[in-house]
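Most newcomers find our protein records easier to grasp once they have seen one. Each record describes a single protein and holds just a pair of labelled lines. A learned vocabulary of local backbone shapes supplies the integers on the structure line. Nothing more is needed to start thinking about how sequence determines fold. The record below serves as our worked example for the rest of this section.
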Amino acid sequence: LEEIHRRNSIGGKRNLNELVSELGIEIPVGFESEEEYVMHLVRDGYHGFKPEHLAPYDCVMDTLKELRRRGLKLGIITDGNAHTQKRKNAALGIAGLFDSIVYSAELNGHGEPISKGSSSLPYLTALNSIGLARGENSIMVGDNPLTDFQFANRLGMTTVRVMTGEYSSVMPATQEQHPNYTVKDISGILQIIKA
């Protein structure tokens, strides 16, 4: 796959389709195209991933423990497949530090997919679970400006962008997607949240 990527200088489905062809993988009955089968393999691999241990970014555990020491209530809102996200949280060993964990895929959106970027429901669910009706006196920390801050901003939450991870080079597309603060890593929120 790395060789195909170097050759094509692009990623995505085209490279995966080429890999299936080069390896001579037969498309099983029931799939209409090579592309459909490749996407099935990718989804299966991603959702079937069962890590035993994942390491959080540097300073995450120390920061979370300090926030707990200060008596703050903590919550997680996570998008994506709920089973996969639950396995990740368990492998990270962080779930016990949180008062609330909201898996947006488990929320009822009247037939519509729910995510942090499409609805205020995940934020309201998290706030309500820790005893808050609105976003005042709460902080949303995220890394993806395209999904994490728009609805949090609308609810009056203080928003903080952490510049670590795969979205560190992504820029907000609208004014509503801009956070109130930007920090280099999660420990930066300790300066925003005064003891």
